[in-house]
Amino acid sequence: MNANTPQTNELAPPTERIPMIRWLHQNLFNSWFNAILTVVATIVIAAIVFGLGHWALTAARWEVIPANLKVLFVGTYPAEQLWRVWTILVLIGLITGFSGGRRSGMMGRIALVVSGGAVLLGLFPFPLGTRLWILGVGAAAGGGIGLGLLAKTRKSPWIRRIEIGVWLASLPVSILLLNGIGDVLPVIEGRTQWGFLLNLLGAIAGIALSLPIGILLALGRRSKLPAVRWVCTAYIEIIRGVPLISLLFMASIMLQLLLPDHIRPDLLVRAMVTIIAFSAAYMAENVRGGLQAIPQGQFEAAYALGLGKVLTTILIILPQALRAVIPAIVGQFIALFKDTTLFGFIAILELLSLSRSVVGNLEWRGTIFELYVFIGILFWTLCYSMSYVGRRIERTLGVGRQ
Amino acid sequence: MSKIRASMIVCQDVHKWYGDFHALRGVSLTVAQGEVVVICGPSGSGKSTFIRTINRLEEHQRGHITVDGIELTHDLRNIEAVRREVGMVFQQFNLFPHLTVQQNITLAPIWVLKMKKSAANEIATQLLERVGIPEQADKYPGQLSGGQQQRVVIARALAMSPKIMLFDEPTSALDPEMIKEVLDVMKELAHSGMTMLVVTHEMGFAREVADRIAFFDHGELIEANTPEAFFENPQHDRTKLFLSQILQ
Lengths: 402, 248
Fold this sequence. Notes:
The structure holds two protein chains of two kinds.
Chain A (H helix, E strand, L loop, with lengths): L19 H8 L4 H28 L4 H11 L8 H21 L1 H18 L5 H25 L4 H23 L16 H26 L4 H15 L3 H15 L8 H26 L3 H9 L4 H16 L1 H14 L11 H10 L7 H30 L5
Helix pairs in contact in A: 3-15, 4-5, 4-6, 4-7, 5-6, 8-9, 8-11, 8-14, 9-11, 10-11, 11-13, 11-14, 12-13, 14-16, 15-16
Chain B lengths: L6 E12 L2 E12 L3 E5 L6 H8 L7 E6 L2 E2 L4 H10 E4 L11 H11 L5 H14 L15 H13 L5 E5 L7 H16 L3 E5 L3 H7 L2 E6 L2 E6 L1 H6 L4 H10 L2
Parallel strand pairs in B: 3-8, 3-9, 6-7, 7-8
Antiparallel strand pairs in B: 1-2, 1-4, 4-5, 9-10
Helix pairs in contact in B: 3-4, 3-5, 4-5, 5-6
């Protein structure tokens, strides 16, 4: 025995190495029926992969995507005003970097991905201006990380307060910047034709607002006051019983008929409110599931310490309830993001409907499949990122729970 | 120690129903300051229900309960005032699993007593020292043994500087080898002059530490007496039967 090895009687678990042939036999060819299934499935998969690969490499006209990138992402947003979109991205890169640098961990990893990803994207042959902006986002994120690391060394409660304040302000500020503010910044018309920007705005606003509203609805549904309980229950059950698409139609057409003439909320605002209201009802049920799982003893322990109902809910019950339902909440966020493509049905030109207009252009006729593949990859990347972040959060918060 | 002490808890003719079930049938008991009263009785006799009425985790429907001069009524301010003065230890611990040991202890001082975080942390350190687990401050409850968890619960309750401590079967959920470590902390607490109400089956603890033992059966307080009198000379047949069953 090696002198460095500690002398113990503990046995390591046996490491089993199954030879390839045996693995194949055990898993794929262990009966005649399974052997046939394996062969057939292999042929089908090979045919699909070959067909797709062949199309993607030879027939597909991928140039449709770079040629229409601006249209797909921001629709009719005027090119000379695009600096506003980029400024928002730079600012978001900056605060993401700052938060990441200050607290490392998962936020740090996100910041690194944003900064590194932007630099990598900047290597692609975009037009010079675009490339500079992309690199700017990466530099802002990198600079943010540096600032965050610097802030980490200082112990001031204000740093954290300012950071939270900036995050809370980021959504309204972004919307104002995009839309324009009265005389200071010219208001940009055609808000309903901004392509992927609208998908993102809908998803971010939906995520930011449907969770708090959902939490309030869930608490309301468990309230001891019958009036509150009935209102919340009715709201949740009615919304969940109606398809989102019909709610969107209602918001786009019926609301106009029902409301008095001088109240004409913007179509985009109506669509956003609808999707938030819809998502909040589902969120409420997710949160209620988490609340249901908290043992009575947790309430009793908090009350016995002299904590009132509000503090008990905020400090003891909600943190545990939300943590228990992170997978369901993230699932709802992902569904919400994908549901923003339904905006197309009420004449809002988001990414999916813009892709159909692109194909309407003679030059790009017959390229819908390429566009759909691109859109699919784009959505998948973002949805998978959300799912990944959700799992990381779950793991980070799961510390010490067995 | 002087025998003339102020009354900390006064219960008069306390009744409690769960639906049609009459869980407490006219319980009257007065606990003096610094007194340790052990409550025993068969399961379902209402002993847990009784001590839970004292910080109003259970509401009594008839009679009066006065804790340190504050009568428990529907008035929320009174209830919260009483809860600030009464610490409670549960059979199932009920630590907050999402908070560290230290955060469990400092939560109520910070949010209820508006104590500064640094002051609360100092108290937590002292209390963890007192219950013998100073090295566990940064762990989560799930990482501790049952006995350690229960000692954290005691420290958490003590952090509010309570005048009264209620123990609801504090050792019933523990493995045998951990019971002693919790009982030792409780003994130290009793000797320090804390007013304590303890529901337990640990008759050794009762004999050694209790000033009085109260015996409950079918929602009634059958008798309350000094340990000597209770064990050597029980007055009621039901008490005798109970003692014969548990002391074998």
